[in-house]
Structure formats: C-alpha cells, structure tokens
Automatic annotation (TrEMBL):
Record-level Gene Ontology MF annotations: carbohydrate binding; glucose-6-phosphate 1-epimerase activity
Principal EC category: isomerase
Protein name as annotated: glucose-6-phosphate 1-epimerase
Family statement: Belongs to the glucose-6-phosphate 1-epimerase family.
One Gene Ontology term, aspect cellular component: cytoplasm
CDD domains per the UniProt record, alphabetical: D-hex-6-P-epi_like
Length: 279
C-alpha cells in the first residue's frame, strides 16, 4: 500500500511480469492509472480531481454501484465510488477490494451486500471484475457501470466503434430512444448516450495515436458513451474547462436494459477486459 502525498489516500500499485502497471485507490476501489509496457498512460484523470470523500475521483474508472445514473432510488451513480474499500487479496499483478455497506448506507439502500472489485494486469491488458453477493434476506435490484475515462490525443481524432445499428437512450433528449446509424460514434458536441443490448466487443479508437483500446465486456448488456463538451466541462469544479478535448468515456453498464434482480444469497458478476490494438 502506498499513500498519496497530497490527498493522504492509500492506493495499490500493480505490475505485470512484462511491465504493465496500474494504480487503484482504496477510495472507491478506483483505478486511476493503467500504463502500457512502454509507459504510456491509457486512462484520463482530471488535473483537478479530488481523491477523497465526498467526491469521486474525476477520471480513471469510477465504480458505479449499486446504481448507475438515476436508474434507482439513490443519488447519481450510487455510493460505492465514494466509499473506502478494504484489500482482501493481493499479488504483484492482482488485487481484490471489498465493500459492505455502512449503517448509514443501509439507511439509504436497505439491502446488505458484499461487492468485490478485482483488478488484474497482464501484457498491455487490464481486467476488472465486479462480484456482488446479496447477503440479506430479500431480493433487490441493482444497476451498475464501470465509468471508464480514456485518454485521447484530441477529441476530433477519437471515435467509438462497434455500436453501428444499436439502439440508445439519448440523455440529452430526455432518454429518447434512437438508433445509431453511423459506422462510428464521433464527438462534435456533448454526447451522453446509453446504448442498449450492445456487442461484447467495442473499441475506443485514437486516430492521433494510431491505436485503439479494445473493450471486451461480460455481464454488462449496455454501454454508455459520454463527452461533456464545453458547457458541462465548464460546470464541473473537478474538471478543467479544456479537458473535454482529451477524454472519452465508454462505460460497460447495466442500465437502460433494466436492472439485475439479485435473490438472497445469489451472486452477480460482470467484467471488462481492456487491451490495445495498433491501427
Ligand atoms: O457518463 C454518463 C453520466 O451519467 C453523465 O450524464 C454525467 O453525469 C457523467 O455520468 C458524470 O457524472 P458524475 O456524477 O461523475 O459527475
């Protein structure tokens, strides 16, 4: 465990045999860095990010649980991303973090659970697995997402591939349902869409860097695509006015397709595997 000097928060550093590294803060079980073997940072974190409660770290991979967005009774994106996790297992290239809701959180969400977040690094690969167990006596519904911020050379050179022909809910049009008719999703303004029942393999392509991040997901039927653009960027205190030009969010999610119902004693698991492909 390492302590971040400026925030005093603890984080874990992972390193694969080949030299791929990752950093995960106990606050929110939040991945804040994934660097390739050659030392290139793949994720985006705002220079104005706040690394401690009550803020979720602006960037990296916020764990949205037990709720994504407004899809449930809690405040935006649930409380896991603002909670301190415990390390329950660790190795040089792998860590498992665990959260059980506090008394206060159980006031808000009266369903006991255990959430495990496991992060593994391999040769230019990052794998992240969520496992939630209903430890209570009543079934409950959950929505979730891995709200991943990818670093991009410049937003006009970014695109998301794999969503052509897929329906989405447009959060900028009151969740109106539309169909993606472009070969790729590009960014010429604010984009905030929940793609439904999506393919398991998507790509965030950076034409400026000549490479794509391949996102392979299991257990997440939906995928959220987000760029705040100028006005929303200006409205976020923990995000630079120009930082929308250097990031794209692609978020494997359980959201618009409907919640998961977790029976007492049952376990839900979902994962994303991130890897790189040269163009
Ligand atoms: O990524 C989709 C989204 O729900 C957007 O609507 C925007 O609110 C974004 O998440 C960031 O949310 P946050 O609560 O982290 O500021």
């Amino acid at each position: 465990l390492t302590t971040d000097q400026s925030s005093g928060q603890k984080y874990v550093v992972l390193k694969s045999a080949e030299g791929t590294t990752a950093e995960i803060f106990l606050h929110g079980a939040h991945v804040t860095s994934w660097k390739t073997v050659s030392g290139e940072e793949v994720l985006f974190v705002s220079k104005q990010a706040v690394y401690k409660p009550p803020k979720a770290i602006r960037g990296g991979i916020p764990v949205c649980f037990p709720q994504f967005g407004g899809f449930g009774p809690l405040s935006q994106h649930g409380f896991a991303r603002n909670s301190e996790f415990a390390v329950t297992d660790s190795a040089a290239d792998s860590v498992t973090l665990s959260l059980t809701p506090s008394k206060d959180q159980l006031q808000l969400f009266p369903h006991p659970f255990e959430l495990k977040v496991k992060v593994d690094v391999g040769n230019d690969v990052l794998e992240q697995t969520l496992t939630a167990t209903n430890t209570g006596s009543k079934a409950f519904e959950l929505t979730a997402a891995l709200h991943t911020y990818f670093s991009i050379s410049s937003i006009d050179k970014a695109r998301v591939d794999g969503l052509s022909g897929v329906d989405y809910l447009d959060s900028l049009q009151d969740k109106r349902r539309l169909t993606e008719n472009g070969a790729s999703v590009r960014f010429g303004g604010e984009v905030d869409r929940i793609y439904l029942a999506t393919p398991s393999r998507l790509e965030v392509v950076d034409e400026g860097r000549g490479r794509a991040v391949v996102v392979e997901k299991q257990g997440f039927p939906d995928a959220v695509v987000w760029n705040p653009w100028v006005d929303k960027a200006a409205g976020m205190g923990d995000f630079g006015d120009d930082e929308y030009k250097e990031m794209v969010c692609l978020e494997p999610a359980v959201a618009g397709s409907g919640p998961v119902t977790l029976q007492p004693g049952a376990t839900w698991t979902a994962k994303q595997t991130l890897s790189l492909r040269q163009l």
